[in-house]
């Protein structure tokens, strides 16, 4: 079964609402909660997620409230699988060692690290047992594949073509088969443009291990019943 991974904006609109939304994700049986550590410069995120990040960052640039929110979610849901998304600059503000200790203490050992500058922080995380993911675009550039080979986390694979494709890899299944043929054995989670049960089924039929749901769940945050139902629908329940 493909894991359904739901994005959660940390601290937006408030820490209390973030915690409530996490409760709804768990009720809907979301497999993994992807929670961010916000930033004032979300240059790689879309307008919806980036806007939430900037607003949340302005409420607490020290990140103490954001970490407390994650701690509360973990205490309420001790067995729920979670992963972090964070820009490197945010981790540096928290302090790399402090961030590592927090992840270890609260059993959040997977991270999407954005804005990696010189591999120093990445290597520190990996040395501490934090699994750092690698992003591979749909057209499978060799440079990104090489980075994935030298990382210890899951692969975040772009799920849909934007027109640029590698020869012989025109479908998602062909892309995943190509990566597996190169010996990449870590989980492959697909994202960007995933928003329906049909998309989840495509990932499953293609051999993917998980699917990221971002804007589609965030837009339902103020409608809890619809949010829970939507997650259950994504899972085929």
UniProtKB/TrEMBL annotation:
GO molecular function ontology, one term from the record: tryptophan synthase activity
Reaction equation(s) it catalyzes: (1S,2R)-1-C-(indol-3-yl)glycerol 3-phosphate + L-serine = D-glyceraldehyde 3-phosphate + L-tryptophan + H2O
Record EC number: 4.2.1.20
Cellular component GO terms held in the UniProt record: cytosol
Pathway: Amino-acid biosynthesis; L-tryptophan biosynthesis; L-tryptophan from chorismate: step 5/5
Enzyme class: lyase
Signal peptide start and end residues: none
Keyword Membrane: no
Keywords of this entry: Amino-acid biosynthesis, Aromatic amino acid biosynthesis, Lyase, Tryptophan biosynthesis
UniProt superkingdom: Bacteria
Assembly and binders: Tetramer of two alpha and two beta chains.
Protein name per Swiss-Prot or TrEMBL: tryptophan synthase
């Amino acid at each position: 079964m493909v894991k359904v991974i739901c994005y959660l904006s940390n601290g937006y609109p408030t820490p209390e609402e973030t915690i409530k939304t996490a409760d709804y994700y768990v009720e809907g049986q979301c497999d993994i909660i992807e929670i961010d550590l916000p930033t004032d410069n979300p240059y790689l995120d879309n307008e919806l997620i980036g806007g939430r990040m900037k607003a949340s960052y302005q409420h607490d640039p020290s990140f103490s409230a954001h970490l407390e929110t994650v701690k509360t979610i973990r205490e309420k849901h001790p067995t729920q699988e979670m992963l972090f998304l964070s820009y490197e600059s945010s981790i540096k503000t928290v302090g790399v060692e402090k961030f590592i200790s927090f992840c270890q203490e609260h059993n959040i050992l997977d991270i999407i690290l954005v804005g990696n500058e010189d591999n120093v922080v990445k290597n520190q995380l990996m040395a501490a047992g934090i699994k750092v993911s690698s992003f591979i675009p749909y057209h499978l550039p060799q440079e990104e594949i090489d980075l994935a080979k030298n990382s210890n986390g899951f692969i975040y694979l772009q799920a849909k073509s934007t027109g640029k494709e590698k020869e012989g890899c025109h479908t998602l299944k062909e892309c995943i088969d190509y990566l597996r043929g190169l010996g990449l054995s870590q989980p492959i989670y697909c994202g960007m443009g995933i928003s329906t049960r049909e998309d989840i089924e495509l990932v499953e039929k293609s051999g993917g291990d998980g699917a990221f749901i971002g804007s589609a769940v965030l837009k339902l945050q103020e409608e809890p019943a619809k949010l829970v139902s939507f997650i259950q629908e994504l899972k085929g329940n």
